[in-house]
Design brief:
This protein is mainly alpha-helical. Helices cover about 50% and strands about 10% of the residues. The chain has five helices and two strands.
Length: about 130
């Protein structure tokens, strides 16, 4: 008859082995240093809660501190961070208006009052003001 401790050890070994196989398969099909998918991290966190952080990290060849962060609920997004986000323009209003001011170090000032939907070439105006050639 198997003791409770031996049964627990057998079960944990089987569960960890299964996840290790999934991780190995994923690692073989991806470049080194690729982000591990969230579903695999979630499985690793469940095992770490059940069998301990150190044992799980070692068995699965995961970074101890990354697994610890996830175990504590601090999740690093596996999605790449956008370096640029395009914002849509609001529909122009006939009553929309704004002021734009430029001031040089020498004290020269230019103030532009925009009213309505027509927008001048602000890039050309600012380049001319700052003396920047095209």
């Amino acid at each position: 008859m198997i003791s409770a401790k031996q049964y627990s050890s057998c079960t944990s070994s089987h569960q960890i082995d299964q996840l290790r196989k999934r991780l190995d398969a994923w690692r073989k099909s991806h470049r080194p240093r690729s982000r591990i998918p969230g579903r695999l991290w979630d499985s690793a966190v469940r095992l770490a809660r059940q069998y301990g952080l150190n044992k799980t990290a070692k068995a699965l060849r995961l970074d101890y501190y990354d697994l610890q962060k996830r175990l504590n609920g601090i999740v690093v997004s596996s999605e790449p961070v956008a370096s640029f986000i395009e914002l849509g323009r609001a529909a122009p209003s006939a009553s929309a208006e704004c002021f734009i001011e430029f001031e040089s170090r020498a004290g020269a000032k230019m103030r532009i009052h925009l009213k309505g939907t027509a927008v001048p070439d602000l890039n050309a105006l600012s380049r001319t003001f700052w003396g920047i050639p095209k």
